[in-house]
């Protein structure tokens, strides 16, 4: 939750370093992180291993915080499950006293995602010549856009042929957040925005919480600079081969 702002454990730092090595050849244009300490440390570890973005500014945003669990924060998960059982509810949808409802979390998700879309539109309007904003067709080294999970996941990387796909990468954004929050984000993408999912993805995989430093990759296309009806494709979900 939010109330106990603990740092990463030794295992958490090892996982964050592993994620950094895994993503070391991906050139990010922007990095956003939850303002909770464990997410800040994870984002810093990832950038610290990156070949291209070590000095990129990390922007911290409270909208990326984990779901607030009220009276259950700082207590074992078993206590939360017991509270839900006593209330006659299922644990994922149960809201402890003082906690956030799933709808409240989703509103934070929606607000932040629309902010990212607006950012992408503004970048496109400024053109692709701005330093530090790479493009797929701008002549930059292809290794800067090596997505290491592509060998493990759907072959969903966009191409320059057919369907009007853009050949320019306006923004390649790293977002560091938390498990329950990200599960809600994915639910928003699927339920509200009709996100295309990788083939053979099971319902249990779709509803599961990502492992720590799990990587999910989404391609967002905004047609004609419009923030309405973004086209969203999930390339991979909760990828953990680096662990």
Automatic annotation (TrEMBL):
Gene3D superfamilies reported in the protein's UniProt record: Phosphoglycerate mutase-like
Claim: Hydrolase is one of the keywords in the record: yes
GO biological process: negative regulation of glycolytic process; regulation of pentose-phosphate shunt
Gene Ontology molecular function: fructose-2,6-bisphosphate 2-phosphatase activity
Pfam families according to UniProt: His_Phos_1
Protein name: TIGAR bisphosphatase
GO cellular component, one term: cytosol
Sites where the protein binds substrate: 38, 66-69
Keywords for the protein's UniProt record, in alphabetical order: Hydrolase
Span of the signal peptide: none
Matches recorded under InterPro entries: His_Pase_superF_clade-1 (IPR013078), His_PPase_superfam (IPR029033), Phosphoglycerate_Mutase (IPR051695)
């Amino acid at each position: 939750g939010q109330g106990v702002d603990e740092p990463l454990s030794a295992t958490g730092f090892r996982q964050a370093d592993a994620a950094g090595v895994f993503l070391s050849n991906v050139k990010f244009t922007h990095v956003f992180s939850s303002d909770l300490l464990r997410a800040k440390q994870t984002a810093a570890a990832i950038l610290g291993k990156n070949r291209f973005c070590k000095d990129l500014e990390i922007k911290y945003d409270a909208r990326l915080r984990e779901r607030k669990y009220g009276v259950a924060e700082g207590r074992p998960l078993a206590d939360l499950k017991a509270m839900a059982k006593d209330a006659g509810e299922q644990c994922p949808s149960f809201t402890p006293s003082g906690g956030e409802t799933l709808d409240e979390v989703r509103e934070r998700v929606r607000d932040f995602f629309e902010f990212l879309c607006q950012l992408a539109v503004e970048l496109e309007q400024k053109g692709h010549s701005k330093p530090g904003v790479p493009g797929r067709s701008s002549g930059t080294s292809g290794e800067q856009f090596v997505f290491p999970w592509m060998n493990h996941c759907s072959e969903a990387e966009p191409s320059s042929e057919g369907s009007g796909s853009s050949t320019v990468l306006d923004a390649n954004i790293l977002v560091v957040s938390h498990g329950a929050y990200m599960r809600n984000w994915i639910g928003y993408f699927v339920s509200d925005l009709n996100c295309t999912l990788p083939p053979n993805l099971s319902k249990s995989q779709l509803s599961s919480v990502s492992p720590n430093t799990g990587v999910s990759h989404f391609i967002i296309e905004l047609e004609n600079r419009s923030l309405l009806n973004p086209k969203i494709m999930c390339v991979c979900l909760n990828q953990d081969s680096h662990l």
